[in-house]
């Protein structure tokens, strides 16, 4: 389908140059015993873009992200991140990327400042004290920088996790439900901050989210997964048009419930 090819899937000869891809996944497979958690998927995240990775529980999103980060070895297929083969060249690229999920807790007994210091040292961040002060101001963390992370509210933990994810000013940011547990005002502020960071730094973002309004607002492209395979890969507007839907939430429900889209030309 030309609409998909035009945004540069990994199996598109006209758009497969890894030079312009922050992430390039080609025929990726992950099998656990007899179960294919990821089943021969290919897609690209262009540099400087925000790409949404959507799918219900068990669709294969988390496994895909783990393989992109080099944490899980693929059964078959190829992954390149910022031009480096993963996981073989993981050491060359990990300092240039970062990951955030509100479902992954930081050490609860350490204060926010101590946690950010540890992660900043792992990334060898220059002027770490200044960087932490900058992030504290950006994410409104100053009042609880010296509070134990385990004593924070869910929303505060999410803001700290995002600050941690940006501490090394990554070229590639992998986000899993970045605005979970945040009130609408704070969530909107976080989205604005991510948009600003992408524009200011030219960063690339892969965003896994169940918030369809968030995806519509932030994402240039959307990759929809179901049962380990890619169901669709295109711009949000093109996907909504193909399903004759006015929102991505309606598309998401169609995919989850097996409703057909337009026949491909």
Automatic annotation (TrEMBL):
InterPro entries: AAA+_ATPase (IPR003593), ABC_transporter-like_ATP-bd (IPR003439), ABC_transporter-like_CS (IPR017871), ABC_transporter_ATP-binding (IPR050763), P-loop_NTPase (IPR027417). Keywords: ATP-binding, Nodulation, Nucleotide-binding, Transport. Residues 23-252 form the ABC transporter domain. GO terms for molecular function: ATP binding; ATP hydrolysis activity. Belongs to the ABC transporter superfamily. Involved in beta-(1-->2)glucan export. Transmembrane domains (TMD) form a pore in the inner membrane and the ATP-binding domain (NBD) is responsible for energy generation. This is ABC transporter (ATP-binding protein).
């Amino acid at each position: 389908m030309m609409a998909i090819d035009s945004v540069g899937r990994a199996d598109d000869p006209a758009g497969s140059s890894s030079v312009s891809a922050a992430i390039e996944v080609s025929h990726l497979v992950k099998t656990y015993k007899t179960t294919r958690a990821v089943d021969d998927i290919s897609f690209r995240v262009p540099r400087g873009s925000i790409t949404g990775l959507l799918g219900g529980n068990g669709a294969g999103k988390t496994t895909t992200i783990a393989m992109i980060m080099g944490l899980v070895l693929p059964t078959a297929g190829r992954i390149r991140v910022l031009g480096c083969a993963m996981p073989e060249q993981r050491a060359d690229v990990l300092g240039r990327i970062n990951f955030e999920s509100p479902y992954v807790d930081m050490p609860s007994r350490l204060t926010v400042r101590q946690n950010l210091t540890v992660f900043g040292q792992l990334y060898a961040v220059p002027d770490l004290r200044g960087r932490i002060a900058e992030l504290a101001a950006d994410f409104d963390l100053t009042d609880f920088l010296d509070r134990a992370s385990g004593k924070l509210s869910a929303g505060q933990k999410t803001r700290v996790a995002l600050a941690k994810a940006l501490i090394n000013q990554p070229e590639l940011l992998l986000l899993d439900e970045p605005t979970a547990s945040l009130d609408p005002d704070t969530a909107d502020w976080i989205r604005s901050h991510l948009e600003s960071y992408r524009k200011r730094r030219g960063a690339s973002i892969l965003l896994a989210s169940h918030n369809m309004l968030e995806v519509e607002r932030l994402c240039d492209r959307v990759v929809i997964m179901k049962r380990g395979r890619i169901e669709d890969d295109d711009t949000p507007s093109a996907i909504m048009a193909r399903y004759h839907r006015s929102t991505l939430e309606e598309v998401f429900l169609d995919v989850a419930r097996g409703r057909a889209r337009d026949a491909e030309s």
